[in-house]
Amino acid sequence: MNQLELTQCLNLAKALDLIVSSRMINGVLYVYNATGHKVPWDSFISDYPLERLQAMVDRQQIRPKAAS
């Protein structure tokens, strides 16, 4: 994963309220959810790859249009 993809993933995850922050600890990137639970980036991204995050955002953008 390159820097652009990492940035996209972090921004999408924040927009989806999956994470609230990230932090590098001893060379390992961790992401934190709203309850303060930290997850290593490698674990998070295996559950939420970039394509899945993009699809989740796309679905959120479609829902309000379909409801009106």
What can you tell me about this protein's structure?
The protein is an alpha+beta fold. 56% of the residues lie in helices and 19% in strands. The chain has three helices and three strands. It has helices at 3-15, 41-47, 50-67; strands at residues 21-25, 28-32, 38-40. A three-stranded antiparallel β-sheet has the order 1-2-3. Helix 1 runs parallel beside helix 3. The longest helix is centred in the C-terminal third of the chain and has 18 residues, at 50-67. It is globular, with a radius of gyration of 13 Å. The mean pLDDT is 91.
Descriptive terms for the model:
68 residues
Tell me the fraction of residues in β-strands, as a range. Answer: 15-25%
In the sheet with the most strands, the strands line up as 1-2-3
The number of strands is: 3
DSSP helix count?
Answer: 3
Multimer state: single chain
**Percent of residues in helical segments?**
55-70%
| Structural class by SSE content | alpha+beta
- Average of the residue pLDDT scores: 91
**Which consecutive residue ranges, at least 5 long each, have pLDDT under 50?**
none
- Radius of gyration in whole Å, from Cα? 13 Å
Shape assignment: globular
Distance between the termini: 38 Å
The main β sheet shows up as: 3 strands, antiparallel
Give the SSE string: HEEEHH
